[in-house]
Structure formats: C-alpha cells, structure tokens
C-alpha cells in the first residue's frame, strides 16, 4: 500500500476498489479510512466506485421471499413492537416496558434512569436483569446497557445524529481481545434517542462499544469509541 | 378469499412510495411494514441466499434486517433509499454470520431444489423493472474477463478479503486488488445509468 498521506501524486485506486468490496484487511481498511480524511482524490475515487458495488446487491438472480419467511417477519414484528415517534392513538397506550423506558430517558440523568429501570425490573421480578451506565465520550448524550438473560439492549438519549454518510455501529469486546464488529447499526431519532439490541450472548463480554462508521458499517473501527459500557 | 379491512388497506398502501411507507412504519404501522416487505423481501432474500447459500440462514438474515427497519434501527431516509438500506443491512448481517458461523462452508442439503420454486414471478411493473435492472448488472458482470469477475464475486458475495482470495487463487495480493479495480471500473462504465438510478 502506498504510504502517501495528504499529497496527491499517488495512486490508491486498488485500495478504493478493495475497500468498497469490503476486501481490505482490517488494518488496511483503518489506514485507508484515515487516509481518506486528507485526500480529496481518493475520496472522489471512492465515491465513483461505491454505486457500482451497491449495484452488485441487486445483481443476484431474483427469488420470491418464501411465504413462511413473510409470516416469520410479520410475527417477529408483532412480538417486538417498534418505537413509533408518533402514536396514532394515545388511548391505546398502556403501561409497559416502553413507558418505563421513556420515563427513564426523559429523566436524562443516568442515576435516575438506572433507578427507574431497576424499579421496573424489581416489579417484574426479573432478578437476572441489570443496567450498566455507559460512558459517552467527546459528545453530548447519555447511554445505558440493559442486560436481561445475557442479552443486551443499548439505550441512548440526547445523542447527536451521525455525520452525513455515517452510522453508529456496536462493537463487542470479549476479555481483553480487540472489539469485534456486530450487525447492530443505528442512527438516532430527532430527539437523539435510540434503542439497539446487542447481537449475541453477553457471557464473556467485557465491553460494549459504539463508534461512528461509514454507512453500511465497518469490519474495522475507524473512529475512537463514542460510547463504552464496561460489564466487568 | 374473504377480503378483510387489512387486505383493503394493504392494497392502498401498495400504491405508496417507499419513503411514505417508511413514514407509516415509524408510526408503528404493521400493514405498511408488510407492504414494504412485499416490495423488497424478495430482493433481500435473493441477496442473502446468494451470499450464504443456505435457505434457513438466509431467512434469519432477512428477518433480522427487516426487524431492524421495523424498530427504527439505523435507517435514515436522508441518507439513502429504503431498498439500498435493506440490501446493505442484509449484506452486513451475512458477512457477520460468515465470521461467526463459518457459513461459507456449504449449502443446506436440497437448498437449490427448495429455492427453485421461489423464482420471482414478475407480476407488477416495478418487479419487472427490478428484474430487468438485475439482469443488466448480471449481464455487465458476465461481460467482465473471468479473472476480474471472479475476484469481485469472491469479495462481495463471499465476504473474502483480498489476502484470502490471493491465497485461494495463488496470486499476489496486489494482483487481486488490481483485478478488482479493473473490474469495477469496467462495471462503472457499463452501468453508469443504472448506478445513478439505484442510489
């Protein structure tokens, strides 16, 4: 790989192609992304190739979604209601986890959030649940990790939206190993809130981290963690 | 078949653009969610199946991607279309499954036979257009020299890094990256109109 930084007398088109295909090694990808911040030519090259890579997603032989898959998708949505930004009919609202969550977020104070959720947990008798306050660094906002039956849910509030063309990505660190990327990508509502399922079992996990990454996510982190929740 | 109010509503929602359906979904409208799945579930499943080669895993991946959309995780209409978001989410999850489940090792028994019956029926104008778009990209891909198409497919659909591909094909890593670049550049020229249409 070229080592040129902010000069323009170089050719890193090979890296651009491999990057849009997701084929750079993690270390190379991180270095390339850093290089992009100082090189207009490479940014333009990347912008030219990105739509081509995106088109590949549509190039596969088209199949119909299986009927059973449609049922599964609809059933899963029914079992896990979303968090609408507007309610069509407020009379339909019932006291629920969602209500508790909103109360907690509205408080805006981590300790109050923890207390509210713990109170809820106590009411529900779910003694395997706990809440971990997360650190938010270099940005306004608050975050907490809700853990129940070894599954995690990250709740953020007052967080600014990611920059244009970027997305927040959740990472999982096991022990002292390097953080591993997950499929959890998210943005925030206009109010800066989001609730994100952390994929996988949390047993053995030491930290949950969030970074800001290019849209579509990264296999290697390109920014310092914005949110860190330590489980141990 | 008995037509319920849900059927009539679904029929009405089918006329809406993706962005309008996404607005309904943000308000918790399950029928709009179903309409959006009708529209893009096939493309999402097709990509997932192409990448992982396993029907059950492909279904899991698609379900996760759509569930994220339903729960408002990550999709922002200001940053791209619903379709491109769904397909990107599917690909990301498929790559994630490669890392965790070694899914690249093989297909489920009889999966090809099982999916034969799923070849999309072109019963709406939009579906016909999408299939035509897919044919166009496939056609451009087929036109590439074999060695360029091979490295692009291994990277994009297989989730392999250039070093892994170099090892598989017994080539220098620089050659693999060079072929990727040549192939993508040719594809860009062939698809310049199409690429603008899908972004």
Account of the 3D structure:
With 232 residues, chain A is α+β, with helices and mostly antiparallel strands. Chain A is 32% helix and 24% strand. Chain A is built from six helices and eight strands, in the order ααααααββββββββ. Chain A has an eight-stranded antiparallel sheet with strand order 5-4-7-8-1-2-3-6. In chain A, a hairpin with a 5-residue loop joins strand 1 and strand 2. The longest helix of chain A is centred in the first third of the chain and has 17 residues, at 40-56. Chain A starts with 12 loop residues before the first helix and ends with a strand. The model of chain A is unreliable at 1-8 and 85-127 (pLDDT under 50). Chain B is an all-alpha fold and 199 residues long. Chain B is 73% helix and 0% strand. Chain B has eleven helices and no strands. Residues 103-110 of chain B have low confidence and may be disordered. Chains A and B meet through helix 1, helix 3, helix 4, strand 5 and strand 6 of A and helix 3, helix 4, helix 5, helix 7 and helix 8 of B.
Overview in brief:
Helix content of chain A is 32%, strand content 24%.
- With helices defined by DSSP (H or I, 4 residues minimum), what is the helix count of chain B? 11
Strand line-up across the major sheet of chain A? 5-4-7-8-1-2-3-6
Main sheet properties of chain A: 8 strands, antiparallel
Mean pLDDT of chain A comes to: 73
Instruction: Tell me roughly what share of residues is in helical segments of chain B.
Output: over 70%
Count of beta strands of chain A: 8
In whole angstroms, the N-to-C terminal distance of chain A is 39 Å
Query: How would a crystallographer describe the biggest sheet of chain B?
Result: none
Q: Which two protein chains have the largest interface (Cβ within 8 Å of the partner's Cβ), and how many residues from each?
A: A-B, 72 and 87 residues
| Element-level helix/strand string of chain B | HHHHHHHHHHH
Query: What structural class results from the helix and strand content of chain B?
Result: mainly alpha
Distance between the termini of chain B: 39 Å
* Rg for CA atoms of chain B: 19 Å
- The proportion of residues in beta strands of chain A is 15-25%
**Which percent bin holds the helix content of chain A?**
25-40%
> What amount of the residues of chain B lies in strands?
under 5%
Q: What oligomeric state best describes the polypeptide chains here?
A: heterodimer
């Amino acid at each position: 790989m070229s080592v040129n930084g902010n000069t323009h007398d170089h050719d890193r088109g090979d890296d651009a192609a491999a990057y849009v295909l997701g084929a750079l090694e993690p270390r190379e990808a991180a270095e390339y992304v850093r290089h992009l911040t100082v090189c207009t030519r490479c940014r333009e090259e990347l912008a030219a190739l990105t739509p081509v890579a995106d088109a590949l997603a549509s190039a596969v032989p088209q199949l119909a979604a299986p009927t059973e898959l449609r049922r599964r998708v609809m059933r899963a949505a029914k079992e896990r209601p979303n968090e609408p930004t507007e309610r069509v009919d407020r009379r339909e609202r019932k006291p629920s986890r969602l209500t508790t969550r909103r109360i907690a977020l509205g408080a805006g104070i981590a300790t109050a959030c923890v207390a509210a959720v713990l109170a809820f947990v106590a009411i529900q008798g779910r003694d395997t649940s706990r809440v971990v306050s997360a650190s938010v660094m270099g940005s306004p906002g608050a975050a907490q990790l809700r853990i129940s039956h070894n599954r995690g849910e990250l709740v953020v509030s007052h967080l600014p939206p990611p920059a244009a063309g970027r997305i927040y990505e959740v990472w999982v660190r096991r022990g002292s190993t390097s953080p591993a990327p997950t499929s959890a990508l998210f943005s925030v509502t206009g109010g800066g809130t989001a609730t994100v399922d952390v994929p996988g079992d949390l047993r053995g996990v030491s930290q949950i981290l969030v970074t800001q990454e290019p849209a579509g996510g990264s296999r290697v982190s390109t920014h310092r963690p914005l949110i860190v929740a330590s489980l141990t | 078949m008995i037509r319920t109010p849900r059927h009539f509503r679904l029929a009405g929602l089918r006329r809406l653009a993706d962005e309008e359906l996404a607005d309904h979904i943000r308000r918790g409208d399950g029928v709009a969610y179903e309409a959006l799945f009708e529209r893009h579930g096939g493309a999402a499943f097709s990509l997932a199946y192409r990448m992982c080669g396993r029907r059950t895993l492909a279904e899991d991946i698609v379900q996760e991607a759509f569930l994220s959309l339903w729960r408002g995780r990550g999709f922002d209409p200001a940053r791209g279309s619903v379709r491109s978001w769904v397909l990107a989410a599917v690909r990301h999850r498929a790559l994630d499954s490669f890392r965790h489940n070694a899914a690249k090792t093989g297909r489920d028994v009889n999966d090809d036979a099982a999916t034969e019956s799923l070849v999309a029926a072109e019963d709406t104008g939009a579906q016909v257009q999408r299939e035509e778009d897919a044919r166009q990209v496939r056609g451009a891909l087929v036109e590439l020299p074999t060695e360029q198409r091979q490295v692009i497919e291994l990277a994009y659909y297989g989730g392999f890094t250039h070093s892994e591909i170099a090892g598989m094909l017994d080539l220098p890593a620089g050659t693999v990256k060079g072929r990727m670049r040549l192939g993508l550049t040719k594809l860009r020229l062939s698809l310049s109109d199409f690429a603008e249409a899908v972004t």
